[in-house]
Amino acid sequence: MSDEALWPARNVAEHAYCPRLFYLMEVEGVHLPSADTEEGQSVHTRVDATGAAPPPPGEDRPTPVRSLVLTSATLGLTATLDLAEFHENAAVPVEYRKGRPRRPRHLHSSDDDAPPPESGLGAPTPWPTDRVQLGLQALLLTEAGYAVSEGVLYYASERLRLRVPIDDSLKQEALGCLTAARQAAAAGRRPPPLLHDPRCDGCSLQPFCLPDEIAHQQASDDPTDELTPRKLWPPLADGLLVVAQAKGATVGVRGECLRVSSRGGEVLREIPLTQLESLMLLGSVQLSTQAVHTLADLGKPVAWCSAAGRLTAMLDPLDSVSALVRRAQVRKLDEQAPSIELTRALLRAKLANQRTLLLRNHSNLPPPLIPALDSLARDLESAPDIPVLRGIEGACAALYFGEFHGMLREPYAPQFQANGRQRRPPPDPVNAVLSLAYSLLTHECVTALRLARLEPSLGALHVSRPGRPALALDLMEPFRPLIADSLALTAFNKGEFAEGHFACTAGGCALTEHGRRVFFRAYGRRMETEITHPVFDYRLTYRRMLHLHARLISAWCLGEVPKLAFLETR
Length: 570
Known about the structure:
By secondary structure, the chain is α/β, with parallel strands linked by helices. It folds into 4 domains: 3-101 and 123-183, Lambda Exonuclease, Chain A, CATH 3.90.320.10; 192-234, no CATH class; 240-318, CATH 3.100.10.20; 321-557, CRISPR-associated endonuclease Cas1, C-terminal domain (Four Helix Bundle (Hemerythrin (Met), subunit A), Up-down Bundle). It is built from 18 helices and 18 strands. The strands form 5 sheets. Strands 1, 2, 3, 4, 5 and 6 form a 6-stranded mixed beta sheet that branches. A 4-stranded mixed beta sheet has the order 7-11-13-14. Strands 10-9-8-12 form a 4-stranded mixed beta sheet. Helix 10 (336-361) runs antiparallel to helix 11 and helix 14 (429-451) crosses helix 15.
């Protein structure tokens, strides 16, 4: 039997905890790190060693074996035991856990004369997932010819060695979990998320699973429903988008860090790989082969861009692919009605955000402008097809950029008013900053879509063609005014850009190396800005907001949410 047909016992045991978690991990291959998973990995690392074969049954000596690999073609199961202790024909599996055992709280009636325990907690017992994993390991050891009467769970937080009897009931429980997991995988669709369940707290896959958000959207048509999504997103800082742009720089990997070095070998910066979300190489920057392999293994997207920021190539880690999601995306967007629905939702939010930006920042809005935008917004709702929606979007863009200069100060306002929005090549500093900001935002959207297991090249509003991330361009539409346009207005109006930050020639205007440093500082601040989601009522940075919406598109393609709504500011 091939390795692909063998399921890891650890993943199967997750079905006892949450069937949806099992499906995401085992069937779709989704693994997101969190503080808990990193701590758990460190606990297992301390006991890991090169796996060895178990001693032959009948050898009369106790033998501990670490990282023991067992497989069963009959069960379709494989497991790497943290530790197994062998004696004669008997084996004791030992599983390490970072946390604490389960301790049921004592219940006492009002007339109970017995004093409650000081802690109010019962004796330690294993969690269902831990029990099932030991049961699966016992099945593998039994098939290998060993008698297994007990197992051990070592809970590192309490340094507690908890013995668990291995009897027929536990083996049947483990087999039942394996059968249920097979049925869930064969169903070909994600199990429903848990509903406001405490098991979601601290789950590393919660930002991908979106249990509360999906439940909220499914029940949003019921006016009596009061489900409010909890903010369960892990309290870790956002991953870093690292942009290497120094001419002739080299990016490599040293130990557990990404290292950026100058042409002369000077180390410019080191970034821990655990903090890296994606990497962008701007212009003539080299990436070592070792770094390519490391970043691919870690599932970190890499973008190669021209010096002006135009996306030219991407490293696509294989673990970002889910056949289930991609198949659903193709089927959904191959139909006209869903494509119109997605396009309309995107443009509805984009037009609202452009309108808000003009109202907040324009020095002297022409009276007909807002009514004209409102009229076009109403036209969106009755547009019969995608070409008509594209026409409405183009008309709105013409009105919006026709008055963009009114949100700028001297000396940039007259330049942009004279040139309008131009991108190939940008004729002035404002156009150059907008183009670079849109390029970075495209890369951010591609990263968000890949992490959501969507195919960035298959979109609705933008035409799909080779080399064009159409869905990423779709996703960025509502965020253009909120991120890129706002960044440009703030940086120019506050005087962050100065003489020497731009090189303007007959071939167009581009940022110098010093200008790009100013730009990237401003871009980083904007992406780290927290905003409140108008529907879910919790705060996320703009970067995480992109990821949230990408995952909602994925859930919509799978039929888990009935409709889409994108971020609108007031």
